Structure formats: structure tokens, C-alpha cells
């Protein structure tokens, strides 16, 4: 049975203003498994107005202790419904359920982390040189926040934004990707059950035009976006016209650097997980593997052997290790990038096309693909593919590795594999990246801030910095002197 999902505005489930729906297509079997309401600019305006009402009349007056209680409850509910939510997400975007299930529990942890912060948003007392003036700073919510998420990990990406926004005291309007909207709407059932007041959380679904209506229209005080650099530029420009601050989490072309003194077994597993987990559809994918020449061939051979054994299949089967491309447009883009890599002269080591097993024929499966002899100037090494495609680049020494690693427009994540702690510290200092891992890859935690530099965006998510992104500081001066400070008084 195909289930229908409607917009969630002001605590009510409602059809879009035009009554239209669009299909949710399972990328594993091409079947329509759900219908989703198609929002309109009118629906966006209603959602923003509902969020504003909720903020002004209710939410801004709710104590941090109460916000924390609701966030704790929401985290517990997500844990309880993790299996159902993970099946829906794997059906929506083709990610292996072993990953979507883990993400649901991880996001529940983020909610509980920020629940603990909700009553601890402290300001500061500022010492002044005027003895009779008391000066202090408080941090306050922006008010109404627009949240736009991508299709690769809808709930995980929402978890990077929503808990912090709510803990800080904001109300939100969420626009998920039209390619994976269902779990975000289903999550609102948990928001209701947790007891959040109507209008605090709102969701409007639809195509990119709905996102444009949200960020370009009036009523938002802050925007948080995860997605492509192209869309990020559009959003930053639209927000700039309204003087609305923006947090942007964009793309990456992350260098995963293996030195010849590394634990090669551990580094190889890290490289494998760094690119083929989530079928490479993650902004932090280690899509450029930089390997010191002395161990280059050994690493490539082992990676090839391991990649060819990755189990592809039904994303909802726990035995599946790698699922599909999330949608047909992305599937076509990945295959086109592989063809471009061949034309550029990179050496195809393994993979290189659509999975050819008969039982995978209906799905958007791409073989785990490895290219060697890649030049860092190739498009294969410069452009984000967002798929299971690894570019292996040899290097000579630390200076060469640093030059290659920093030699793209991106700066989201990087990793260094070495047993030499001095080398590790030198490299972490030189790498232009928002996140650097040493002897690990793709490790995330609610406590640690996350975000990029250069064309990977700006602002931070998670950790204390992620909370402060959703607050604005207010300075207060209290003059408790007994004298009038008259600037026009004549001095004797």
C-alpha cells in the first residue's frame, strides 16, 4: 500500500495549497512506495507565519529546562522508532539499513546532547573601566530559522541542525530534499508525541522552488543549509539581499593521506570505509586517496581486492554493505564522472560502471570504482562526484602531500595515517580543512564541531559552536551611578 504524507504546518497535517502530490521512488526497485504533498509558496508563507506566532506567543517564553525535557523525550522516541525510520530512509534513498539504523540512534544522541545544553546557554559579565556601570552579555535565539537538508542522509543532516536550533529557543521551518522527504515528515509524528507546541516545528515539501521561496521570502531570521555548492551560492545570495545570516555545509573533495609508516591494514580499512560507505554519497567522503610511493602499489592492490568483495543488494537487507545511488539524476552523474575519468587518462583498477548482476539490474547500483595514476589536476580529483569513486594519487613526501591535499577549492575534511606523532601534528597544522582525522576516518560525535572552509562552506554544526550558530549576542549596560552623565554640561 502506498502511504501518503502531508505537509506539517502549525501542528496540523494538511495538503498543499494546490492539492498536488509527488512520488517517492525506491531507488532499489524503481517502485513508488509513498506519495508526498507538493508544497507551494503560499504554504511556505503559512509555515513561516506559524513559526513566528509560535515563537512570539509561546516558545520564546519556555524555559531552557522545559526545552531540554522535550528534546530528551524526542531523542528517546527516535531511539524507540529507529527501526521503522531506518526502513523508510533506506527505501527513500537506497542507503544500506546498517547505516540508516546507526544514524537514527546517533541523531537521538545529538538530541540528548543539546537537551543538556538548553538550560546552560550562559552569557558573560564584561569588566569595564567605569566602576559604576555593570555590563553583561546574554545569548538569545534568532527567532525563526529556515532549515534545508539534502537527500543523502535526511535525518542525520536534520540532526546536525534541529536539536541545536530548538535548544537555543528558535522555531523552525524545514524543507527536505524532494528526492528524500518521507522520514522528515514521519519525524514530525515524533515531534507531536514528544509534546512540542504547534508551530515550533514545520515542514514544507516540494521541489527546489519551495526552497527558493523559503530563503528569498520575508520572515526568516537565520538559514541553515546542507547541499551543493551551486545551491549554497544561490541561498547565500538570496539571504544576503534580506541580510539574513546563513550557515552553509557544502561539498568536499577530501584527501585521505597514507604515509609509508602507517598501519597499512588499519589505513586500508579507513580508506575503504571513507569512500564506499554510504556509496560515497557523503560530503566527507575520502574521495582522494593520497598514498606515499613506497607503499602505493600495495595499498591499491589491497583496496581493489577488498572493493570487489563489497556486498551490494537490497538496502533494507542487513547483509547489504553498499546500497544504491539515491536517485536517477545522481546515478547518471556518477556514471558520467567515471566515463570522464577514463577519458582523462586515469587507470581504472576496478569497477567502472553500473553493477552487472541480474538481481541488481532494476536498481541504481554503481560498482565500487577505483582509479589509479590520477593527476591532481584532473576533474576526477577536483570535482565532487558524490558516489563510490576513488581517485588514488601518489606522493613523495610531506610537502608534496600537503600541496596535493590543499590543491582543490574544497576544505571540509582530511585524514592522516602515520605512526609518527610529530608528522601527524605537522600535517594537521598545514591542512586547510575544517575537520582533520588522524589514524581514523568518518568519525563523528555530537560533542565535536563540524564544518568546512573555502568552498565547503562556513559556520559550524554540532558541539557548543553548533549551538551558538543559532544564537545572537545582546550586550546590556546598567549605569548604577548617582550622577547624570550630561554630555552638554559645562565643566568648571
TrEMBL record:
Pfam family, one: Aldedh
Keywords: Oxidoreductase
Residues forming the catalytic site: 249
SUPFAM superfamilies: ALDH-like
Domain Aldehyde dehydrogenase: 13-476
Transmembrane residue ranges: none
Chain segments annotated as coiled-coil in the UniProt record: none
InterPro entries: Ald_DH/histidinol_DH (IPR016161), Ald_DH_C (IPR016163), Ald_DH_CS_CYS (IPR016160), Ald_DH_CS_GLU (IPR029510), Ald_DH_N (IPR016162), Aldehyde_DH_dom (IPR015590)
Similarity-based family: Belongs to the aldehyde dehydrogenase family.
Name of this protein: Aldehyde dehydrogenase
Organism annotation: Pigmentiphaga daeguensis
